[in-house]
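Researcher: Good morning. I'm working through a list of sequences from a screen, and I'd like to move beyond sequence-only analysis. For each chain I'm collecting a predicted structure so we can compare shapes side by side. This is the next one on the list. No need for commentary yet; just the structure.
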Amino acid sequence: MNSPVKVETRRTQQERKQDAENALLDAAESLIAEQGIEQASLAKIGERAGYSRGLVNHHFGTKDNLLKRLLERYQAGFRLVLDNIAKTSKNSLEALLRSVDAYLEVYQVPGRKSPAFMIMWGAALPPATPSEAISDSEERVLSMITANIEHGQVDGSINTNVDPEAYSVMLLGMLRGIPGETLIVKKELDIAQVRQEVQRFIKQTLKP
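Model: Good morning. Structure tokens for this chain:
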């Protein structure tokens, strides 16, 4: 009996382009986590990905564009999580609690993605020139949290005495600070316990 002939499908040009872009973004992500943004040059990124610097320039043009694309990839992945949470939550407070916990859960298991994002975020703080991509991202997140709280005040799950915008700034500041502590403090932090405390805090401050 003859064995079936294996037919290899050729990848399209678009698929090859996407594979190369993903490999370059993965390389940038790991280099930023290890060495910081300044040391993660286009030449090093291309070398780690197994490509030339010329290909990095071809795909992204500049390092800023590469960082912007990496940030967009972070956002796209987390947006899928948030969309699923929004669809399966019974009210706005539950959606907020689950979204916050999903964000912190990423930092419970050490990995290259967590440090890379926080390093990119920290590099946008003064005296450095704020990254436009990071600034736009933060404004979108603040708007999203604010809208969630406003919806909760309408559906009755969130205290109407809370100022949505001010609370959003406070909450996002806390969420950005917690991962920062995991990078700075030498001792191993119990992020699982931190997640529980954050949940308790939000419930106590937002419940009607």
